[in-house]
Each structure stands twice: as structure tokens, then as C-alpha cells.
Amino acid sequence: MMFAVAMTFIDQTIVSIAAPDIIKELDLSSSGMQWVVNAYLLTLAAFFALGGRLSDVFGHKRLMLIGTLVFVVSSALCGAVPTGDGAQAWLVTFRATQGVGAALMFPAALAVVVAVFPVARRGRALALFFGISGALTAIGPLLGGWLTTWTWRAIFWVNIPVAIIAIALTFAARIRNEPRRESIDWAGAALVVIGMGLSVLGLQQASAWGWSSAITWLCILGGLVVLALFVGYELRSRHPLIKLQVFTDRAFSADVAVLFFSMMAFVPVFFFTSIYAQVSLSSSPNQAALFLLYFFAGFAIASQWGGRILDKQGARPALRLGTALGAVGFALWANKLTDLSLHDQWPYAALAGAGIGFLLAPASTDAVNRSIGTSYGEVTGITQTVRNYAASIGLAVFGTVLTHTMTDRVVESLEARGASPEQAHAGARDIAEAISGNADNRPPSGDSPLARLGSDALSDIRMDFAEANQVVFFCMAGALAIAFICSGFHPGTRVAGGDDGAQQPETGAGTAATER
Predict the structure, then answer these.
(1) Across residues 239-268, what is the average pLDDT?
(2) CB 280 within 8 A of CB 466
(3) In the chain, where are the structural domains located?
(4) By CB distance 3.0 to 4.6 Å, which of 208, 242, 351, 466 could disulfide with 280?
(5) Which CATH class is domain 2-184+241-410+462-492?
(6) Which of 89, 87, 91, 96 is nearest to 40 (CA)?
């Protein structure tokens, strides 16, 4: 099961490091590239709960295998994208089907783990499951940087041997498939897909449509209204897609809120950092991946401490510490982006990663441990849906912020070099879209907007890009600050096993959470 889910987590971030190469070869805009990344996150979030329900109905093993096949076939097709006018549509489409495959695969794999391990050993199994999954998210850019030195298409093809191993091990483990007769909440599934899709569409396209555009707000507000209808429908439904009553647990709600705001920074940071390193620092994909290694190092070390804090003191101290460190780390990191020096930034990148590391596993594990009256799979469906939806929103919002800020900065640079306001505004949008595809040290060639600029102007624009990313990173620090506020609402209760084997809250420090 871990071989299967490894692909889903790595693919959340592996594409980010290859973004400039993909943009150049396929002639995509930077906003188009954001859709390539976000299509996967959005469909994974929107279909996750439905995947869990289908897993219960058709059997966990069967859905895990179907999801793996959908995922790996989509990966192969992503790697085989042809160049030309239809490249962006092709890549976005099959990134979306990748997300659907992951949404079928992941809840089924989790359900297999829950079913196979007895209750007394299930906590340790789930801790390993979630701990490694978080680490794999951070490993994605490192693997992507290495593969991109050969060809960016390899970041998709690498899933093929992993999927073959996962399928072979699944059959070798002789896992039984046990389908159950249960109803499927198709109406709820449709509402959550439409609501998430519309809201993210509006947020991401705001850079192209404009914040004053009626269609922008129609999508954003329409999506939120549909999600509100989904909540009302689920609360009235006899067989809901998601049992929302679990949110009556204050600690669970705090865990989910912390995950939401922290994930707005965690997954998008890989995309924006890799683009920044390759554009403003003129780094190669491999060098950009090594830059992210500092973030991952802080994440990996803090993850171990976060788990120990959870065991000894409960989730609240880990959440408070992680969100505070994350907010400070991202703010200090943002302040150093315009120095254009990797040497000056690495301590703050590590601090930001440590903040996420302290909170990720404790928040996820504490939420799952509070699955009173519902299953591990259903609660994980909620947390994973929230995590991926938050990542989609973060990428959409911060991408819009980056484009707008970059455009404003380039307008100022072009006007300072004698361009009229009309010429500056006309060229700024094209440059903001095209600059992500020019990560090397050479002046661009051809008819691109950058081709008409000299080396001095290119240097100024790389600084403009750094300043635009600085705004994005300050926004990420703000998201972690909101997560810190949310962590304060966690009551500090802990989870211990009752005599009947159900999870029961326990106040105070006491002993580590146990399960009977």
C-alpha cells in the first residue's frame, strides 16, 4: 500500500521543479503551468470522499488496483504529451485523471491498512503511513530535479515501475476483496466536485479575468454557495458521502483548520520556490532541487520531534510550536528572497520546513484518532480532502498574486527605461507570463517578449520576479499565522482507548494515546 500511495504524494510536488522546462518545450504560459499542477490537486480533493465510498462498496483491494491503473496510465500519457497547440489541454486533462486515480487509490489503500492491522497495532501502522506520506511530498522536487536533467517527461514515467511493484506486492500479499452493499451519495459527490471546481477556477483565473470581472466573482461565490449546499445536504442525508457530525469535536475542527491553512503554504511552496530559484537565481533544475533540500531537512528533523510531542503531551503543543515556527520561518525567508543569494536563505528555508514538520503528522494523526462514531477511512477522507483543497486554493491565490505583483513591478521597470505607460502595460503581462520559461542565463531568442530586452533589463526583471515571490512568501507566512490562531482553539484533550475499544478523549498530559 505504501508503494501505491508513494506515487500520489510525490506527484503533488514533483512537477513543480520541471515547470520551466515544461513551459519552454510546450510553449505554456506560467498560469497554464499552474493549471497543470493544480488539476491534480483539485481532482484529488474533489473525488477523495467518493473514492472512499466506492472502496467500501466494491472492495478495498479492487478499488486500489483500479485507482493504480488509472493513475499510471494517466502518468504515461502525461509523459507522452505532444508539442503543439493542444499540449496544455492534453497535459491538464491527464493530470486531472491522475488526480482521480489517486482519489480512488489512496482511501482504498488506507482501508486495507486499517483492515489488516489489529487495533492494538493500528496506531503505529497509521503513524508510519502518514509520516512517510508527508516526507514523500517533500522528496518530490528532489527526485524531479534529478530526473529533469535527463528529460522532464521522466517525472511522469517514473510512476510506471513503482505502480508495477505496488500491483505485484498487492497480489503477493493475498489481500482479500470484501465488497459491501451500501448506497452511494451521488448528489453529494456532484455538489462537492462542482463547488470545489468553481471556487478554484475563479481564484486561479482572477489574474487573467481581473478581480473586477463579474465572472471571477460568479465562480468564486458560486462555488462557495454550492459547497454550503453540500454541507446542508450532507447533514440531512440518511447516507451522506461525508459524516460532518465529526466536526462537533472541537479538537477535530481545530486539527482540520490548522491543516487547511498550513497546507495553503506547504504544497505551493515547492512550485514557487523552484520557479524562483530557476528564474531569479538562474539555477538549474538540479540546483533548485538542492535548494529545496534545506526545507526538507528542517521538515524531516522536526517531524520526529513532532511525533514525540504528540505521544507525550498531545497534539496542541505540536500545533502551536509548528505554526509559530512556520510563520516566522516563511516571513524571514521572504525577507531574504531579494538578496538573490542561496547562502543567505537556507537557515530560513529550514526553519519554515521545520514548522510544517512539527504540525503535519500530529494534526493528521490526532484528527484520525478522533474518529468516534465514524471510520478511520471517512475521517481520513475529510482531512485529505481539506489538505488537497487547501493546496489548490493556495496555488490559485498565490499564483494570481504572483502574476499581478510581477506585472506591476515590470511596468515600473519598463517605464523607468523610457517606455510609455501604454507600452509598459502591454509588455508587462506578456513578460510576466513568459519569464518562467526563461530560467537559463542566456538572453531569450525568437519572438518572446524577453527577446527584445537587453541583459541589464533582464537582470532588473529577475529582481522584479524575486520581489513578486517575496509577496507570495509573506502571504504564506500569513497563512501559518492564521493556523497558529486556529491551534489555540484546540482544547488540549488527548485520545485514549476505552474498554470497548472506541476512542475516548482524555484531558491533560498523561500517558501517550493508546488503543485497545
Answers:
(1) 90
(2) yes
(3) 2-184+241-410+462-492
(4) 466
(5) mainly alpha
(6) 96
Mean per-residue pLDDT, 125-141: 71
Cell numbers that stand for 463 in this block? 529582481
Which pTM value belongs to this model?
0.83
255-292 pLDDT, tens digit per residue, is 999 999 999 999 899 889 988 988 888 888 888 888 88
Question: Amino acid letter at 353?
Answer: G
Residue 302, by phi and psi: left (phi above 0), alpha (psi -120 to 50) or beta?
Answer: alpha
**353, 293 in Cβ contact below 8 A?**
no
CA 240 to chain centre: 26
Burial per residue of 265-292, b for 16 or more beta-carbon CB atoms within 10 angstroms, e otherwise: bbbbbbbbbbbbbbbbbebbbbebbbbb
pLDDT in tens, 316-332: 999 999 999 999 999 99
Residue keyed to cell 530586452: 453
Q: Are 40 and 7 in contact (CB under 8 A)?
A: no
Instruction: List, in sequence order, every residue forming a beta bridge with 504; answer none if it has no partner.
Output: 496
DSSP 506: E
Closest CA to 154 of 164, 163, 143: 143
Cα end-to-end distance, the chain, whole Å: 24
List pLDDT tens digits, range 75-131. Answer: 999 999 998 888 999 999 999 999 999 999 988 888 888 778 776 676 677 767 766
Cα–Cα distance measured from residue 407 to residue 99, given in angstroms and rounded to the nearest whole number: 31
